[in-house]
Amino acid sequence: MDPIIDPFINISRHEFDALIIRCFRAIYKFEQANVHGFGLNYDSIFLLQFLRRQSPSTMGAISREM
Question: Does the reported pTM lie above 0.85?
Fold first, then answer.
């Protein structure tokens, strides 16, 4: 049996790895839906998400983030 990742979460390393992979797939599918649904590229989506979190923002902050 694999060691437990966290004493408060009783899952094996294999289960944890599978969960992480499922999370990454969900994020990827979400981004793909945005790319295809809105006709934007990844940079544009990233910029819009940044501005949603950090608005208003300066050009310098946007430049550092991008």
Answer: no
Distance CA 66, CA 62 (A): 6
Residue with tokens 């797939």: 25
Q: Which two tokens stand for residue 32?
A: 């793909």
d(CA 22, CA 20): 5
Which domain, by its residues, includes 54? Answer: 13-65
Residue 1 lies in a domain: no
As given in the structure block, the two tokens for residue 51 are 């501005």
Cα–Cα dist 22/60, whole Å: 35
pLDDT in tens, 24-61: 999 889 888 888 888 888 888 888 889 999 888 899 98
Q: Is 4 contained in some domain?
A: no
Instruction: Give a yes or no: residue 32 inside a domain.
Output: yes
Q: Return the pLDDT at 31.
A: 83
